[in-house]
Structure formats: C-alpha cells, structure tokens
Amino acid sequence: MEISNCTRLLRRLLCGGKQAPWRTLCRRRGDCAAAALLYRKHGDPARVLRCESVQLPRLQERSVLVKMLAAPINPADINMVQGVYAILPDLPAVGGNEGVAQVLEVGSQVSSLKAGDRVIPRDAGLGTWRTAAVFGEDSLLPVPKDIPLLAAATLGVNPCTAARMLSDFEDLKAGDSVIQNAANSGVGQAVIQIAAARGIRTINVVRDRPDFEQLSARLRTIGASHVVKEETLRSPQMKDLFKTCPRPRLALNAVGGKSATELLRHLQNGGTLVTYGGMAKQPVTVPVSALIFKDLKVRGFWVTQWKRDHAQNEGSVNEMLAQLCALIREGKLSAPACTEVPLQDFREALERSMQPYTSTKQILVM
C-alpha cells in the first residue's frame, strides 16, 4: 500500500482519535479494523512491510481491546522481519515487539486489567506496529500511567536487559566498574543510568564518528563515567584510565569480533563477559590465556528467554518493572534519545533506524 493510501487508511480507522467508535463497532458487529504494518514474507523490511487494514477479532472473555500509542523500532524487530531472529511468528505477521498501549475494553473474565490502563507486551512476537489490537489478558503487563509515554514504550526490552545483566552475573557494589561496547545503544544508555543510580562506574566504548564529542557529552550527561573510542581500547590511555578507575568485573558485549576480545582484555581476574548482541556479525574470540590465567567467564543473555523462564514467577518480573519505574519517576532513568514518527511514515523510520552511527531510536506513534 502506498504511503498516501496508508495515510487515508489511518484517518479512517483512527476515528478522529476517539475511542467510542471502536467500542461501539466491536460490540455490535465484531468486525472493527486497524491499520497495521504487515509482512507476508521475510526480507528487507522496506520492501516486505505494507500498511494494511486488518480485521480485529471479536472480544472474548479473557481478551483485551487496546489502542496502541507508541512502539519503537529495535534491531530485533528488523531481524524478525528479515527472518534471521531466534523466534519468528507465523506469516502473515505484524511487525514490532515492544510498545505501550491503552486498554479500551476488557472481556467479562478479565481481572487484572481495566479500561484506561496502560499496558506493554509480556513477550516478544505480539506485533505492536498497529493502531489497535485484541490481545489475550495474559500477554500484557500493566505499567503506571504516571511515567512518560516514551519511557513506557521503551521499557520492556532495553531497560530490562540492562537491569538483568547488571544484577545476574556479578555481585556489583558501589565503586565497582563495568565496561561495555555499543554504549550509545538503547541498552547501553540504560546500563549507564541504572549503574549510575547504584554508584557503579561505567567505561563506555563507542565507534569513532564525526559527532563523537557531542555523543560523549550526551552520555556523560546521563551518568557515563568514561567514554572512549574503540581504538582507545588498544592504546596506553587505558592504563591511565585504570589509575583512577578499578578494572571492571563485568563486560557487556553487543558487537562481537575484535571489540568483544578487547573488552575481555580489560576485565579483572575472574570477571565475566556477557554477550547480548552481535552487530559486527563476527564471532566472539576468547584467547586461551583469558580462560586459563585470568579465569574469565563468558556468558550470553537474551531478555526474551529470561522472561519466559520467569513466566510462572510474576513477582520477579513485577519487581523489576517496579524498580525501573521508580528510577524513571526519580529522574534517574529516561528513554533513549527518540525521534517520534507517524505510523504512515514508517519507511522513513525504518531507513533511519538502519543507518550507521544512529544515535536516536525511531518511535512509531499512532
């Protein structure tokens, strides 16, 4: 569907921003529709995604009608559309794994949610790039309405990933340090802020770029202790850095290849390298000496699997979200730099999200 057609479709389906037409239509006829970014085959997102009208199913006893408010474009979303992610929904599928929605109506047996609540997806693969949807009650998690919209829209993936990695692999105390690459990513910015709130220093590695000084200043503004270029990891400057900062016990790798190996070199004995991404599309190479003489540990982390492993223990998930929301209220955790893009302009947002040296997250707003 062309962009102009998508715009007309959105105007027709959004009902002028009012909630009542959706409620009335679904209750009387059970055939209301939503605009959605749909893909019927895997491939280049710019080519396979189309803005289409999708029929919403009739509201069932344990289902929830929601209006999507905002949804980010994350690397995992791109990989899923490309068909190269660990989990792939059945086709045709709606893109997007993260976002925030408002509950419009609930089924007669729904007990945990009510109209007016804000919710985020419990798991990946829900399909958030759409104006409205009917989801099962157990596929949604409530979030407070008093946190900013963009913070809520980006809460479920990056901050959760950062929080778990900072807590689950090393017993970090105030004064300890963490080193990470891709520090300007959504996860990287969350790591900086959560660590700063705990008194943990961060050594933040980013690729060299024309606006390095501006990026460095921005990361320091949100709590970064040190910001260095990839090339600096292999220079004598690191010895000077470690005169005032302890060697890190934890390294967080989203890149792979040589970058990951350099992180390993700077860990203190017994430290842990956690890999949660592979942007370089190169393997993590671990020197034998790092394992034998430094007793370093090499682990992986995927927040989707963590959530699934804790699906029967809602207390741990709710506690994590409550802690993150508390940091947001206190002004200690904010959404990454974002660019809000109307849903009908999704192609522009996709193009920007896949450009190198991207420093802002694209957020689709409905």
Structure description:
The strands form three sheets. Strands 3, 5, 6, 7, 8, 15 and 16 form a seven-stranded mixed sheet that branches. It is built from 14 helices and 16 strands. Mean pLDDT is 92; it is low at 15-22. It folds into two domains: 3-154 and 335-365, Alpha-Beta Complex (Quinone Oxidoreductase, Chain A, domain 1); 158-304, Rossmann fold (3-Layer(aba) Sandwich), CATH 3.40.50. With 366 residues, it is of the alpha/beta class. It has helices at 3-13, 20-28, 45-48, 75-82, 149-153, 158-168, 186-197, 212-221, 237-244, 257-265, 288-292, 303-309, 314-329, 346-353; strands at residues 33-39, 49-55, 63-72, 93-94, 100-106, 118-121, 132-136, 140-143, 177-180, 201-206, 226-229, 250-253, 272-275, 297-300, 338-342, 361-365. Strand 12, helix 10 (257-265) and strand 13 (272-275) form a beta-alpha-beta unit. It is globular. The longest helix is centred in the C-terminal third of the chain and has 16 residues, at 314-329. It starts with a helix and ends with a strand.
In short:
Its main location: mitochondrion. The protein has about 375 residues and is of the alpha/beta class.
Count of helices? 14
CATH level 3 topology of the largest domain: Quinone Oxidoreductase, Chain A, domain 1
Q: CATH homologous superfamily of the largest domain - what is it? A: Medium-chain alcohol dehydrogenases, catalytic domain
The overall average pLDDT, rounded, is 92
SS-based class: alpha/beta
CA radius of gyration? 22 Å
CATH architecture of the largest domain: Alpha-Beta Complex
How would you describe the shape? globular
Between the first and last Cα atoms, what is the distance in angstroms?
Answer: 17 Å
Q: Can you tell me the number of structural domains?
A: 2
- The share of residues in extended strands comes to 15-25%
CATH class of the largest domain: Alpha Beta
Multimeric status of the protein = single chain
